[in-house]
Amino acid sequence: MEHLNKALTALFATLLLLAPLLMATDPDPLQDFCVADLNGKPSVNGYPCQPSSSAGDEFLFSTKIASGGDPLANPNGSNVTELDVNEWPGLNTLGVSMNRVDFAPGGTNPPHIHPRATEVGMVTRGELLVGIIGTLDSGNRYYSKVVHAGETFVIPRGLMHFQFNVGKEPATMVVSFNSQNPGIIFVPLTLFGSSPPIPTPVLVKALRVDAEVVELLKSKFTGGY
Ligand SMILES: *[C@@H]1O[C@H](CO)[C@@H](O)[C@H](O)[C@H]1NC(C)=O
Ligand SMILES: *[C@@H]1O[C@H](CO)[C@@H](O)[C@H](O)[C@H]1NC(C)=O
């Protein structure tokens, strides 16, 4: 009995000591979701690590965004060269990643959201209209500025935003994120190109237009672009 009491006291003391740790928040998710495998072996939030002996210094360097893609290869007039953990395995667990986006004149990086990261960026060539729309807390406020080469901007995590090349010349920006996998939700694609599609009556009611308008918009995004 005395043993049991001592054991319980020790357990209680340990729990008290651990309390601050136990109250810490969960780590942020690094993927859209991670359905529990109730019989699985323990895994990690992200990718498992290679043994450090096989990770040479090349993992810490990348040339991926030294050049950009062709912005005229798709209807947006912009081309995103991604540099997240999937392109640069050395970023795993470090909580950062980058992108380069090249724009033709009049090209846009359409309205989108990064669910897992704040974005800071610099326009390195040309001039881009950067627009950010606040949540209802801000009264849906539209914040915008034409950002020139050498100037910077920040997009708070989760806010919808876009870039648009208002110049006569091609434009380029380089951005970084405080997540190894920021994720992207393209608003037009999300509404009109989901797979399977959102039922048309939902969009008719939500957007206050006729079904033909919704069908037309859906027809523009069936290919993912
Ligand atoms: C981006 O540009 C490259 C060529 O540099 C092209 O191969 C690729 O298809 C383009 N991507 C998109 C999505 O337009
Ligand atoms: C073009 O924009 C649409 C959303 O409007 C998006 O789904 C698509 O991935 C974009 N394409 C490129 C190449 O960025």
TrEMBL record:
One Pfam match: Cupin_1
MF annotations from Gene Ontology: manganese ion binding
Keyword tRNA-binding: no
Subcellular location: Secreted, Extracellular space, Apoplast
Cysteines paired by S-S bonds: C34-C49
Amino-acid positions noted as binding Mn(2+) in the UniProt annotation, renumbered to this chain: H112, H114, E119, H161
Gene3D superfamilies linked: Jelly Rolls
Keywords for this protein: Apoplast, Disulfide bond, Manganese, Metal-binding, Secreted, Signal
Family according to the record: Belongs to the germin family.
Protein origin, superkingdom: Eukaryota
All residue ranges annotated as the Cupin type-1 domain in the record: 64-215
Protein name: Germin-like protein
Signal sequence annotation: 1-24
GO CC annotation, single: apoplast
Binding residues for oxalate: N99, N109, H114, E119
